[in-house]
Design brief:
By secondary structure, the chain is mainly α.
């Protein structure tokens, strides 16, 4: 069952042919409008806060705070490309970061093995989500909401409502705490993951198959694409990335507690949904998702430095999402209008009618 639809709305050469420069700019506005808005926000906050915003320290802070959200957004983006949604990216990180610590402190598991166990459990959760959606035919929103709630309950049961603390190896701390060229290594993780996903989705057959499934699963199946296999694979990939985010969160916080993690769900989903409104509007894509995360990070950082209250972050997330969806809706309506106004192709007359 589909929860969302994936179709691309970027202008084609045929649409742009014959348009004036102003009309072309208007047509490209929904495609790169979010990118331009991000640049404008960076310039605006740099002018308003020249001592604090355009600094290396602020860049470090943004990368450190938002890298985990970026990974979760990429995780959520993969099932979205196939027309499904995965809510366990927000619930699962609660259990994964707790397990990454408790396996080492309570059971004495070496940190590399503990990390591998958590990643495998994340993949297994994605596999179960895929079975629920494709085999049991449960809507992905309901299935992953149920699975995520179970994971959260397991985290509460495992901790008993208490924090999981203990001395961890320096190697585990370095997963998040290492600096590369003066910037957090988590930024490198995000960049590498984004490049790999971009190459897979845009240039490999598997990516075209996933997008075809998201656009029309019935047509994809009729064309010989194994829909069930690719959807389950999308959920496995999502679950693995969510588990990776949990490991990095554990390395960052150095303690595990069930009250931490759920606040990542909304920003991660907002970043992924924003990604479907830019670069390739109407279709989730890697660089659009990155722009979605960046605009949230830049906007929230700037407003907080100006003196915004504690409610600024959720307010900004919600407003930005509504504005971006409005832009995407405008693009879709405009494309429909252009298609209706386009002259019909002449029909060739049968031979011998003259």
């Amino acid at each position: 069952m589909q929860s969302i639809e994936s179709t691309a709305l970027e202008p084609t050469r045929g649409e742009l042919a014959g348009l004036s420069l102003a009309q072309k700019l208007i047509r490209f506005l929904p495609v790169y409008g979010l990118v331009l808005l991000t640049l404008l926000l960076i310039v605006l906050f740099s002018l308003l806060l020249p001592q604090t915003f355009p600094t290396v320290l602020n860049v470090r802070s943004i990368i450190s705070d938002k890298a985990i959200i970026a990974i979760l957004s990429l995780a959520a983006m993969i099932p979205m490309a196939s027309g499904r949604i995965d809510l366990t990216v927000g619930y699962g990180i609660v259990l994964w970061h707790i397990l990454a610590i408790s396996l080492q402190t309570m059971f004495g598991v070496p940190w590399p093995i503990a990390v591998m166990i958590v990643l495998l459990l994340g993949a297994l959760t994605g596999f179960l989500n895929g079975l629920l959606v494709e085999v049991a035919r449960i809507d992905s929103f309901i299935a992953t909401l149920g699975t995520g709630t179970i994971l959260y309950a397991l985290a509460l049961w495992h901790t008993g409502g208490r924090q999981v603390v203990g001395v961890l190896p320096e190697g585990f701390y370095s997963l998040n705490g290492t600096m590369v060229l003066g910037l957090p290594i988590t930024g490198i993780y995000v960049l590498v993951l984004a490049l790999v996903l971009w190459l897979v989705l845009e240039y490999l057959p598997i990516g075209r198959y996933v997008y075809a499934i998201g656009a029309n699963p019935k047509a994809a199946a009729l064309n010989g694409i194994p829909v069930r296999r690719f959807v389950i694979g999308a959920f496995i990939s999502s679950g693995t990335l969510a588990a990776l985010a949990g490991v990095l969160l554990a390395s960052k916080l150095r303690i595990g507690q069930a009250s931490v993690g759920l606040e990542y769900l909304l920003p991660a989903l907002v970043g992924a949904f924003l990604g479907s409104t830019t670069i390739k509007p109407g279709r989730v894509n890697v660089w659009g998702t990155m722009i979605g995360v960046i605009i949230l990070a830049v906007g929230i950082s700037g407003i907080q430095q100006i003196g915004g209250s504690f409610f600024v972050e959720p307010l900004f997330n919600g407003v930005t999402l509504l504005v971006a969806i409005g832009i995407a809706g405008y693009a879709q309506r405009r494309r429909g209008t252009v298609a209706r106004k386009a002259p019909a192709a002449p029909v060739a007359e049968p031979a011998g009618t003259k």
